[in-house]
Amino acid sequence: MRNYEIELQNRVKFIRNLLDASGAQGIVYGNSGGKDSALVGILCKAACDNTVGIIMPCSSQRNFGEDREDGLAVARQFEISTRTIDLTPQKELVMQTLQDQCSLTQAAIANIAPRLRMLTLYTVGASEGRLVAGTGNRSELYMGYYTKWGDGACDFNPIADLTATEVFEFLRYLNAPEHIITKAPSAGLFEGQTDEQEMGISYAAIDRYLLHGQASPEDLAILERFHSRNAHKGTGPVFYAPSADNMGHTIP
User: Fold this and answer.
1) Which residues of the chain carry a pLDDT beneath 50?
2) Which domains does the chain have, with CATH numbers?
């Protein structure tokens, strides 16, 4: 287990150094009511008093109920400034505008909300001189379980090296609300959705592989499939550049 007292000190220093180097006046992050956003919010608040979490419900009833209440519980306990912006009308407008132009798939519809949320965070950030904090953990990043140009976008991420298991441990060290630690992780993209059910593998199994290199044949097949299929999310756009293979490069 990590020494979370030292982890807290180092991550707070990391965030403060970024703020000093950037000249930014504060931080903004998406307060989803989940484990990752809770930890990011706590760390950012410890580093910068001018931190604001934005709760952004979008269509899903869970967004308006359990997730919102959990987000507010963390914000109250750690005195994090909070705003709520309902993005449901914006999602409906996007779908209405595009449905006559193309056949919208369920995957495309599910990704609208994360991209609207990131648009919102960057708009607030640009208007108020804030850096946008990312909330993806190592387990999600390895699996590619996030939306490209949605929740995968950020100016910095203070927990990207932590597995889901380590996020739980860190939150317990910080005495975060127990319900956030024990509830089933969910992106809240549609009713009844949970991360583990959608991926077909538990975070415990993902983390055993990442931390110890151990996995059953069934789990290993899922891990390799997700990691390979979503590898493009971890790179930038491919730019043309003269080369022997004429395949271009991610860095111009």
Assistant:
1) 251-252
2) 4-234 (3.40.50.620)
